[in-house]
Amino acid sequence: MGDDSEWMKLPVDQKCEHKLWKARLSGYEEALKIFQKIKDEKSPEWSKFLGLIKKLVTDSNAVVQLKGLEAALVYVENAHVAGKTTGEVVSGVVSKVFNQPKAKAKELGIEICLMYIEIEKGEAVQEELLKGLDNKNPKIVVACIETLRKALSEFGSKIILLKPIIKVLPKLFESREKAVRDEAKLIAVEIYRWIRDALRPPLQNINSVQLKELEEEWVKLPTGAPKPSRFLRSQQELEAKLEQQQSAGGDAEGGGDDGDEVPQIDAYELLEAVEILSKLPKDFYDKIEAKKWQERKEALEAVEVLVKNPKLEAGDYADLVKALKKVVGKDTNVMLVALAAKCLTGLAVGLRKKFGQYAGHVVPTILEKFKEKKPQVVQALQEAIDAIFLTTTLQNISEDVLAVMDNKNPTIKQQTSLFIARSFRHCTASTLPKSLLKPFCAALLKHINDSAPEVRDAAFEALGTALKVVGEKAVNPFLADVDKLKLDKIKECSEKVELVHGKKAGLAADKKESKPVPGRTATSGAAGDKDTKDISAPKPGPLKKAPTTKAGGPPKKGKPAAPGGTGSTGTKNKKGPETKEIVEPELSIEVCEEKASAVLPATCIQLLDSSNWKERLACMEEFQKAVELMDRTEMPCQALVRMLAKKPGWKETNFQVMQMKLHIVALIAQKGNFSKTSAQIVLDGLVDKIGDVKCGNNAKEAMTAIAEACMLPWTAEQVMSMAFSQKNPKNQSETLNWLSNAIKEFGFSGLNVKAFISNVKTALAATNPAVRTSAITLLGVMYLYVGPSLRMFFEDEKPALLSQIDAEFEKMQGQSPPAPTRGISKHSISGTDEGEDGDEPDEVGTDVVDLLPRTEISDKITSELVSKISDKNWKIRKEGLDEVAGIINEAKFIQPNIGELPTALKGRLNDSNKILVQQTLNILQQLAVAMGPNIKQHVKNLGIPIITVLGDSKNNVRAAALATVNAWAEQTGMKEWLEGEDLSEELKKENPFLRQELLGWLAEKLPTLRSTPTDLILCVPHLYSCLEDRNGDVRKKAQDALPFFMMHLGYEKMAKATGKLKPTSKDQVLAMLEKAKANMPAKPAASAKASSKPMGGSAPAKFQPSSAPVEDSVSSTVEPKPDPKKAKALGVSSKAKSAQGKKVPSKTSLKEDEDKSGPIFIVVPNGKEQRMKDEKGLKVLKWNFTTPRDEYIEQLKTQMSSCVAKWLQDEMFHSDFQHHNKALAVMVDHLESEKEGVIGCLDLILKWLTLRFFDTNTSVLMKALEYLKLLFTLLSEEEYHLTENEASSFIPYLILKVGEPKDVIRKDVRAILNRMCLVYPASKMFPFIMEGTKSKNSKQRAECLEELGCLVESYGMNVCQPTPGKALKEIAIHIGDRDNAVRNAALNTIVTVYNVHGDQVFKLIGTLSEKDMSMLEERIKRSAKRPSAAPIKQVEEKPPRTQSINSNANMLRKGPAEDMSSKLNQARSMSGHPEAAQMVRREFQLDLDEIENDNGTVRCEMPELVQHKLDDIFEPVLIPEPKIRAVSPHFDDMHSNTASTINFIISQVASGDINTSIQALTQIDEVLRQEDKAEAMSGHIDQFLIATFMQLRLIYNTHMADEKLEKDEIIKLYSCIIGNMISLFQIESLAREASTGVLKDLMHGLITLMLDSRIEDLEEGQQVIRSVNLLVVKVLEKSDQTNILSALLVLLQDSLLATASSPKFSELVMKCLWRMVRLLPDTINSINLDRILLDIHIFMKVFPKEKLKQCKSEFPIRTLKTLLHTLCKLKGPKILDHLTMIDNKNESELEAHLCRMMKHSMDQTGSKSDKETEKGASRIDEKSSKAKVNDFLAEIFKKIGSKENTKEGLAELYEYKKKYSDADIEPFLKNSSQFFQSYVERGLRVIEMEREGKGRIPASTGISPQTEVSCMPAPTSTVSSIGNTNGEEVGPSVYLERLKILRQRCGLDNTKDERPPLTSLLSKPAVPPVASSTDMLHSKLSQLRESREQHQHSDLDSNQTHSSGSVTTSSSSTANIDDLKKRLERIKSSRK
User: Fold this and answer.
1) What does each C-alpha distance from 719 to 766, 770, 1073 come to in angstroms?
2) Average pLDDT over residues 1286-1309
């Protein structure tokens, strides 16, 4: 028992971790007791046990585990910190508890999981349980499903996310384990209980038997909506409330909740979206246009199959929809129309709201197609349009639908009406506002009078449906003129209608009267919610409720005289009776008298026309009394006013009687049911008296009363027309004054401005100033309501008048219109003020805007204009945009139909040219103003792309975009923008500019809205990610916007949305939400205002500029929805909270923002120095550890506190890695802006980063490395040097990471090491890396060794520390390593040293084991021979040493360092990736420098031959290749494509836009490089070449002169052009297609380019010129020889004629001709001699001999002679037969010349044949005359100069020299080029060695001893040809050339160093078949030239003439190779 007592004494936590199970059991029991005792859930005690909980549930002993589970359950239930353990504990439960045999354990496990859900950790639990479903142990799977089922059953589907469960269900049903299948069935039943039929689609593919079983189970379920039985902690208060309510019997709220619950999940949401665009057949767009209908059918069937997927992924379906629309609209085959309609249905159903943007395009087409009679087509079209309707709103398509309503075809009219009826069913009172109902009713009313019965019936049905949806009250005003029969028919239809949304909609509308305002909005709001949810269900069918009976409103109390009128109880409902009185018949005077006598005293009627005014006055008094006492229902208004108008009527002369009369009219109008008929009787008289001084006021009063009775709009119209039809100015001005006043009293609703604007214009033109003044006053009043758009009607008035109008408008500016005081009671019912008039301004808005005469501009938007806007050339695009701006400006106001313009403009919003983007934005702003509110329909396709522009990096572009968005929003209101997912998709993009602008915009707009669409919630997740964005501005804007989001969505919804965030983020966001809650503004009041100010439209004017009448309309249409939510969500609680805590939080939030905006690094003077002193003086710990201990971290924290911002430090030392990521992101952001701070804290930053190297999280590591790369780049730019302290505390830890298993990390570390060499000497880096080779990690050893190799290679041997010997010995140890990679790295490193240092390596290494030594020797040998196919580490890629031996001294100087870095980088990237072999440029020149500086010991022996170095020197030079490799969209299916594609691309080659041109060239290059595709270019060669030289000309004249253009761009373009041409001219068949004229221009372009001095000055210019050289050679060789010869002759002629042409130009042309001459022997048979001779003839005519001789240079004449001479020699006398094309040969100088030549050559050949018989002329008689000798030598030199006989010539020359040792061959060599001389001498020496068998070159040749290392002739191995970049073989000439240059460099020839002019390169012949090899050769020459000190030009002409004949030899034949081989072998053997 001893040990028992031991553990008894231990504390609880130690017991719980004891290895004895008893101890643990005891510990768990104690823990359980402790847990039960702690009462406070926030007690700190809980935190002590955090780490224990997982242990409790995963104990290995079953008994102990049970106790542990109990304890854990108590902990989770009571501890407030328990949530932190969710992930680990639940995963422990899943893996260790659910597999236990004891049922108790499983129960407790499930309980624990459910408890975690209760404490708000549902998502984490669900995630772990879902992972558990993949477990192999079926027990665990079953338990996980059971837990999920219980959780769902208890918490409900709001807490448990069903989508992920449903996703795995089918898999569970397929399980082999019955238990799993059974459990799956149970959970499927449970899910069905919550979401009903939404579960069917996801399970449709499971086994049919299982499905049947499920169906049976589902049927048994109760139909009632399920309720959760258990609540989250946060909901438990709610639960308590619910219980109270239920006990009190008030189930209201519960019921409401349930209503929400059922439609909460929609089957669509549970489905996976399928991407179908990529699956469309490749040839779909071709097939759909095919002539054969079968092919079109195939294409459509393919789409039909794809769109059957119930949910489709969003994408750009524009083209597909366009194609389908075309079929529906244009296809003649009706079967295909039906099929296309089905496809559209599928798309609409699968995409839902995302299809909305295309709806507008398709709807008109489908509606017009209803003319088809075939039932299956009609049905397909109906299905399509119904499906499309559900993706958009009625508002959006109303324009299109109404347009079709006027169609003449009855079937179209019928089907459109039926569609409207079906659409109305989906609407609710709130989604079918008055503004929308009005135009539809007007159109349908026309149809109910149509001649076709089916049209009438359809219209009745539509009107009936509208009646049902919004109720009679809303529809009746529009049905005023409908007779009773038809009205009954409409009502009958209305009763049959079944609404999609059940009764609610109808009731909402009908019960309105009896409810107060919020009640009304509540119902419609709920219906509105429903609406959106149900619309999204794919099949509305099953949702239809039972037919609803008409909701009976209050009992009707209509007058019998008012058929159809429904006056509501106790209110003066004017609308009902007015219905009758509008059509009140005009009664005859007799009837009137009869009616009047019934109500008036008899005397009164008799005295009406008395001649005595007093009697008339008395009569009037009686009349007035009678009227005052009359009852409204009995008052015969028309009869009474007729009586008043009876003679003398309005001509009454006595003013008292007249006043009385007018007063009575007012009384009748106020008291009776006054109709328009009655009004017409009196108005004329009233207008006549309005200007009367005494009676005017009474007349106005009467008019006002009439206006109140008959509505102001009608009255005003009548009055105005009457006033202006008479001449009396007083009447006119008073009428205008009355109207001004009336508008203020009645409000502006319904006024037909248009009708009296013409009258106002008449008034403005009046001569009487009073009339003008009144008119201007009236305009001022109208301005209050209409806004600035009013001015547009008067812009053509005289300036003086216009300035008066403007002054009046200015007075009104900023005032809000007064609330209407009249006209309300008459036409609205108590309690619905807001309802009625809330919609009222809508009419105003639309009316005012409708008044503007709008121009139709769609015909001006032609396809040409559209293609202009999307042209490749920006100038043309700009023209197009200018035209559009012009069209809109001219039209001022336009109709919404603008054709293809939206798509064209959308494309310009992401134009590469920012000026065009801004121009487009300006046009869109114009468009918004011009189109007015109709621009709504373009929000989705044009508005959202404007928002994308807010992400532009340029400030001015963003500002323009914001202005445009605001201009649009002013016209459209915000609803359109916030609907759908578009806005949230924009916010999702991680573009800081876009995010901050968009959030700023929303923060500005949201507070002004009364309500928002529900889709706003979609933005919330992205808003949260913005709150944590790395960019400070984005975070700030997101915080600013937060309260406004909350104002619309409510705190609960926002808090719920945090559920998906990571725990740390969630806590932060919730804290911000709390803060926002306190600052949350109240919504702009709607309901409150409405009750106090009956005119709802005036309310919005408060918070809108008066210039935005349209916004009124929007806010009012949107307004009714979320009011009740506001009441609920914001209610008392939010206000109370804001009252308590408003000020404090706002301050703190401000403060925090300020904190973060400051600098993150504080510069402390001498801080770093002090820290170093402390470390040296051992005051602090030295930064040296194997793993960082806490004291190091604390020390760093303390040191940082003084110089790093507090908030950043918190992030840096946070326990959670995400905060480290955040810190790094901030540091990256501030790197550039705080350079000083960064350098000041560099030691601390590097130390902190070393800590990150010990983190396990890869994302932090990657971020850290990313930061380091940027950091070291910055340091090198700042020319900073790392201190020893910084280096030693950082480099060792960085080197640890070079051994990481992840490739990408290793690569980054190597890149950082490389950059470090710029700020820290390589020689000091070396020991650190050397230390790294001792690591246990083999990857690290290998990488470090490789790094050492790179350092040696780049910086020479003296980086090796402490000494090269020691370092190499250490490296050599690793050759015996057991890891293959390490061995290889060690060998490679030593081989690298060998490359630099030669055989000395073996001495430095010392003794190695035999095995190691043999491996090393083998590797060295291989490295020399290795062909490029093998990994080319040593050969192709290693850059040579770049600096002289003392490079390290220079290391800290900036210049060389940069160079070094790039070299080192190359070495690294290549050694790591041999296949990425990049060519190293300038290598030859650098080697020469090295030779010059390498003052080694003086030895007089042959230089040592190191075998493999040679290839290195001759790295092939890269032909510039097009760097942009765009994948050609056109050429992939080249063959199926027509020539037009190629034409199009070739046309782009000459584009003024560099990028366009490069793209086109790249595409052509791609074709040319693929043999099988190249022939597609055939037939286009001339066209391509023309485009190319046009581009060359453009670059030469324009681009090169353009200061703004990056010269890199130009070089890139040149590279592309040249690369392309080289590819082209390698394909002989294509090259031969080039015609003479084109070749001439091309050669002109190329030669001009070679002579362009501006290019030479550029960095890469030399490379370009070398490539052009090569290209010219190709052109000369591969083109059609006749054409090119001819072209060159013409070019020469032109260049000699042109005075401006430089002599250099002509010279180069002649060189080309010489080149051609040398090719003649091979090509003579393929040349059309006649043509060439004709050209020469013309040339000689233009330049006769005399003229040619006058030329400064004798080249031209020589060239011509050489050409003719060669032709004569090759063709002999036959040449004279080829003069056929010359007209009069006899006069031709040419013929004479040829004849002379023939004669001369006949003599020559004679002598020559003699000589040949004398054995090659080596036995010439000594006494031969000097002339003979000269001839003989000339002959020999000719042989040497010719390609075939060069060897023979040299042999002859050797014999000759041997025989006549004193013979002087100097004169022959003197005129030739440097090369030719050295070549001849070398040749003679070679022969001498061969003949005499000498092994060595005599010492007299003067080898300079210092060239020991680098001057080695090529060893034999090089002859095995190394494949160049294209994988073809390089000819031997290359190597010969290399050798030659080397020898010359080593002084093996004693001639003077002369610089061959650049142009002589052209004449180098014998280009091997591969581009790069020749180029390489040229590069050697040009570099040779660059590296020379003295540049002397020898006499040009001698140089050139000979080069024409002689340099040919550089390509000496393969035979010479054997000599070379032998020589080299001998040299080597002699060394040994």
Assistant:
1) 18, 18, 59
2) 89
